[in-house]
Design brief:
single chain, 438 residues, mainly alpha, 0% strand
């Protein structure tokens, strides 16, 4: 890889349209995913697991979050295979549609009081469908943004699908905040919790409209024209790219685990352990997500200048160091100190998420890129965030202290730190040439 970086010939308006499609679609996808996580912490234990005692019901509710992550590698393999075979764009439309249908289905689902044990079973099925969709969504959105990006700006353009995650979290928390403060506790448990799920119909329509108007990735179009597609791209990744795959998986573990503490755990922890109103904890989560989103955009652009590895390294060390102060500040139940806790955490999350799309694209050859990126993202999520809320809840229950969760955070940060140190990064010219497949 010694050639000069290629020059982009794409219409800037088309590039911006693709970036917007990645942002909007990912926002919708993760809004759907996160309203489930919020509902799992707030109401599902009381609606779908009423046959269990409250503590076990809450664990069962959090377990349904984790179970969906089991489906994500399968979704990544399926979407990756088809994305490397028939194109990125088609899979983006398909994954968004699957997520939308599953989300609306949760909003229409009868509770345990109405249909008994069938209710949690159906809830689990719909959550598995969400997991399949999420496993294939990110890879396509990330690669569309990076492969359309101008030379020297792939890190920045790769932040468009990334920033959709905190925006989805903000929307999910805002909708739950509005609904929960506009209804009584009884109304919220009876029907109010369904509103965020049913509103997904509107967002899905917008996302599908935007995504249907973008062009296929020029990198994939070139691959198709050359008839250079592989018949079994995932097998090729496992056979020829095992080191890259392991590094990519490791890069995501700490970010996803700690991200899910912010997404799904602290709202329940604040209301049940600290005795704070759910509206307060939802607002705290929104602040953390805003900082996270800003840090994503800044860190992705910064990685274009200093390299992905350096940004990852600073972010991972930051999360490791903040693991104990985070819960010490949260446990004060003081709003200013809790906001400080999530704001600093958001910076660390942004630094370890902003460069990810570009880093993953640079790790895998173009003909297996969707498969490699999707599987690494999905499997990293299984090892990281999949069961993080459940594990955190169990640790506190067993030890009686939130500092046990801090120890858990440190362990996963050390795993990701090892992956960051193993990340091989070429020159800027080599990264550019590799991403566009020249």
């Amino acid at each position: 890889m010694t050639q000069s970086p290629p020059t982009s010939t794409e219409d800037p308006a088309a590039v911006r349209r693709v970036a917007l499609a990645s942002l909007v679609g990912t926002t919708v996808e993760w809004y759907d995913f996160f309203i489930y996580a919020s509902a799992a912490g707030l109401v599902f234990s009381q609606l779908f697991f009423t046959a269990l005692d409250p503590a076990t019901a809450l664990l069962a509710s959090f377990a349904t979050i984790g179970v969906s992550f089991v489906a994500r590698p399968l979704g990544g393999v399926i979407a990756g295979h088809l994305g490397d075979r028939i194109g990125r764009k088609r899979m983006l439309v398909a994954t968004l549609l699957i997520m939308g249908l599953a989300t609306v289905g949760v909003g229409l689902l009868p509770t345990y009081a109405s249909i008994g044990v069938a209710a949690p079973i159906l809830l689990l099925v719909l959550r598995l469908l969400q997991g399949l969709s999420a496993g294939g969504e990110w890879g396509g959105a990330a690669l569309m943004a990076v492969e359309h990006a101008p030379p020297g700006r792939r890190g920045f353009f790769g932040t468009y699908p990334q920033v959709g995650v905190p925006i989805g979290l903000i929307l999910a928390n805002l909708v739950f905040l509005v609904v929960s403060t506009s209804t009584t506790k009884e109304q919220f448990l009876s029907w109010g919790w369904r509103i965020p799920f049913l509103l997904s119909v509107v967002l899905i329509g917008v996302g599908l409209f935007v995504r249907a108007r973008v062009d296929e990735s020029p990198v994939f179009a070139k691959l198709r024209a050359q008839r250079a597609r592989r018949s079994a791209p995932m097998l090729s990744v496992l056979r020829n790219q095992p080191r890259a795959l392991l590094v990519a998986i490791g890069l995501f573990i700490a970010n996803n685990m700690i991200g899910y503490l912010l997404i799904a755990f602290i709202t329940s922890y604040g209301t049940r352990v600290l005795g704070l109103p759910s509206s307060t904890m939802l607002a705290v989560g929104i602040v953390g997500a805003v900082v996270w989103g800003v840090a994503i955009v800044w860190s992705g652009a910064w990685s274009d200048r200093v390299g992905r590895r350096r940004v990852y390294l600073i972010g991972t060390i930051g999360l490791l160091v903040w693991s104990f102060p985070f819960f010490l500040l949260l446990d004060t139940a003081s709003l200013p100190l809790m906001l400080l806790a999530v704001a600093v955490l958001g910076v660390g999350l942004g630094l370890t998420y902003g460069p990810q799309a570009a880093a993953y694209a640079e790790l895998f050859p173009v003909d297996v890129r969707y498969s490699g990126a999707s599987f690494a993202y999905a499997f990293g999520a299984v090892l990281g965030g999949g069961f993080a809320p459940l594990i955190a809840q169990a640790l506190i229950g067993a030890t009686g202290t939130s500092l046990s969760v801090s120890v858990y955070m440190v362990v996963v940060c050390l795993i990701t730190l090892a992956a960051v140190l193993a990340l091989r990064e070429g020159t800027a010219a080599e990264r550019e040439a590799f991403v566009v497949g020249t």
